[in-house]
Amino acid sequence: MTTVLVLNADLGPLHRVSLRHAVRMLCRQVAVIEEAVPDRLIGVFPMPRIVRLVKYVVTRWRYTNGPGWTRPGVIRRDNATCGYCGGSANTVDHILPRSRGGKNTWKNTVAACYRCNQRKADCTPAEAGMVLRVKPVAPTWFALAGA
Ligand SMILES: [Zn+2]
Questions:
Q1: Cβ atoms of 76 and 109 closer than 8 Å
Q2: Measured between alpha carbons, how far is residue 67 from residues 3, 4, 70, 106, 138 in Å?
Q3: Which helix H or strand E contains 117, and what residues bound it?
Q4: Separation of 114 CA from ligand 1 center, angstroms?
Q5: Looking at residue 13, what is its pLDDT?
Q6: Which residue has the higher pLDDT, 43 or 113?
Q7: From the CA of 142, how far away is ligand 1's center (Å)?
Q8: What integer pLDDT is reported at residue 43 of this predicted model?
Q9: Is the pLDDT of residue 5 over 90?
Q10: In terms of pTM, does the model score above 0.90?
Q11: Nearest to 134 by CA among 114, 100, 107
């Protein structure tokens, strides 16, 4: 089923609703289209992919944190590009190695190719003489959704 992401008035992601529900929100003018599917119409509206509430809604169930850390999430965040050599990555490197207390967090992990990951081993990038080309950040929930 096609679902539509609903953003709060401050652009914070709230939840997903059915396309029908989203169109009703547009009709009632409680929401406006933030992003639409190109060249698709639902009645008079462009087919929404993301809608934004007109008025800010305070909710208990609002996403206050971004998405939780996962290995596939790291690869996805980094577009499967090795943070060290720019090659294609299919492993996740811990910048501060886990053996030395590095955690599974967005900021401590980066997508890496097998070669770089092996080369870096249990070192920090500086110790291994490797330069990290990217600054790992915690992605928004939205960026990972791949909308
Ligand atoms: Zn590499």
A1: no
A2: 19, 18, 9, 10, 8
A3: helix 114-120
A4: 7
A5: 86
A6: 113
A7: 27
A8: 85
A9: yes
A10: no
A11: 107
How many CB atoms neighbour CB 44 within 10 A? 8
> If you measure from the C-alpha of residue 82 to the centroid of ligand 1, how many angstroms do you get, rounded to a whole number?
5
Round the average pLDDT of the chain to a whole number and report it.
Answer: 89
Q: Token match 């709060």: residue?
A: 8
Sign of CA dihedral 58, 107, 131, 80: negative
144 vs 111: CA distance, rounded Å: 15
Residue with tokens 């609703």: 17
- Starting from the edge strand earliest in sequence, which strands make up the sheet with 45-53, in order? 13-18, 3-7, 45-53, 31-42
Q: Closest Cα partner for 139 from 33, 13, 40, 20?
A: 13
* Ligand 1 centroid to residue 78 C-alpha, Å: 12
Dihedral (CA of 147, 44, 17, 5) sign: positive
